[in-house]
Amino acid sequence: MCGVNRPRIAVLALLAVAAAWGSTFFLTKDLLTRMDVADYLALRFLIASVALVLIHPPAISKLSRLDRGRAVALGITYGIAQLVQTEGLRHTSASVSGFVTGMYVVFTPLLGAVILRHKIGRWAWFAVILATVGLGVLSLRGLTLGTGELLTLASAGLYALHIIGLGAWSTPKNAFGLSALQMIVITCVCGIGALPGGFSVPSSGRDWVAVVYMALVAGALALIVQTWAQAHLTPTRAAIAMTMEPVFASTFAVLFGSDSLTWRMLVGGALVVSAMYLVELAPRRKFEAEVQHLAQ
Question: Any one cellular component term from GO for this entry (predicted)?
Answer without folding.
Answer: plasma membrane
